[in-house]
Amino acid sequence: MIKNIFKFFILLIITLLIILSYLSYFGIKTNKFNNIIEDKINKFNPNISFVFDSTYLKLNPFKFTFRIFIDEPQIIFGNKIIEVENIRTDIKLSTIFSEKRSLKNLLIITKQNELNHIIDFVRLFKNNIQTMLFDRFINNGNINISAEINFDDYGKLKDDFIIKGKIDNTDIYLPDRSQFSTSLNFIIKDKLYLFKKLQY
Questions:
Q1: How many CB atoms sit inside 10 A of residue 197's CB?
Q2: What is the pTM of this model?
Q3: Residue 114, number of CB atoms within 10 A of its CB
Q4: From 11, 75, 139, 150, which residue has the greatest number of CB atoms within 10 Å?
Q5: Helix 115-123 and helix 129-137: axis angle, to 10°?
């Protein structure tokens, strides 16, 4: 009897280890988190549509979180489309079956998009003097972006976001009406904008 119970627990542990390993390495495809991601985007701005098929869920047992992956979604606003390579976010393991599931962060990596579309998109959230100047003095070109965004326990955006990327072949118009074309690397943080001209 004891021997059979021991075998049962050994088999149970092995089964759990296999399941945990599978979830950690391969993950599973699911639509369970589509609504929470769409709601999070919609809270930022109801004029934005977020189009994607499904999500992939992977376990991170060391941080007690599930990592959610979205491949090749599209962000649509007005008549403009931003093509995204992938989006990644973490959700606490303790809230996975709760009605109050909340995202901890978002990592967004875009494909190459038109620079003017990205500027228009950013102005939906921050229509300040900096974005107005970008819109006025920068034109044409393409851009790739990697954005890291974190949320507090109440789901509000933290100020520790980091946006970095590369701008190719953009035209910059100066106040004296002169113009030049260039390519740039950039990093944007809260109240910090760093640009570096690429040397070819």
A1: 9
A2: 0.73
A3: 16
A4: 75
A5: 160
